[in-house]
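Troubleshooting: if your tokenizer reports a length mismatch, compare your output against this known-good record of 380 residues.
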Amino acid sequence: MDTWDVVIAGAGLAGLALAAELAAPEFAHLRVLLIEPRKNYVRDRTWSYWALPNALPQQWQGLPTTQWPQWRVSLAERSVLSKSEVPYASVRADAFYDAALGMIAKAPHIQWLRETSIQQAESTAHGVEITTNAGQCISSKLLFDSRPPKPSQASDWVQHFVGWEVKVKSPCFESQCVELMAFEPHGSGLHFFYCLPYSRTQALVESTWISRAILQRDYEAELREALQQRWGCSDYAITFREKGALPLMPRPAAAQSHVVRIGRAGGKLRAATGYAFCASLQQTSSLAASLAKHFNEGKALIDWQAPPFKTSAMDQWMDSVLFRVLESDWQAAPQYFLSLFERVPELQLIRFLQGQANAQDRLAVMRALPAWPFMRAALR
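Known-good structure output:
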């Protein structure tokens, strides 16, 4: 049986970020193994966030990003345009992958198993025993599991989307303003379009849904119609495609000794918004700092306990109440979001949407929404 100090299951956002942290010289005494199903890394998604002070850990603040000074939400003729000085930022996946892979490549104590997945992981008294899809048996003192949950039941709330990056011949996009949520009311879910304009002639446009399970939608027809009717784009080339299905409030996996779940697997996705980028990087940075402190104190890896880095129970409860209200009348759901953007001070709303809210921020959100439907959902 192959023996390691640390195994990282899944080398996506959280797995790669943690491996990059562990590539630092103070962890050179560890034997670290990354297990990842993919063979190569290519651009496959786009992560976005509000660039609040210290939104990203120091190590990741040099990532190449695109930023916009303004963002907007809209419903028919009603719209709200941002007024704060907090820019909206976006990171292409390949930029993050290149940065993380470059750090890992300089660390000989970190090894890979690519095109490999974990079939089974069982905790023991001294660590975790892992079996891969190729039949390999691996023993590790510690397993960081970043494998995201999958939508499993029709009762799960899911954010699902398809996006196109397009180039057009005639300028049609507002290059300084992100279309955060352009709502299209529908009876089966919350539907909106999302647009990141890289220039007047290039943008990433997504058709996004939030619903129970994954609706069978013709996303491409929705995108074609939106490009034509909303942005007046009829002559364009698609240069990149992305898609995703994010379980927003997955059932937590059973706790296992010597197993630490990270990223979306560790509940770092903000259910009300689908944002996970900043929280995932903050978590992996916190874990690495805790490990470094543990070793500096002369303690053994087997005795390390992961520091708590959990989503606020109040935020989880508020998200659950929100979804219950939304699904009670999906047609009216966009009105609630417009109320939030109109009535909550922007900095407070941004912190709430990004999972950095304090008690005053949450109170401001509660006050901005109609009392009766939310009280009724809370009592349920």
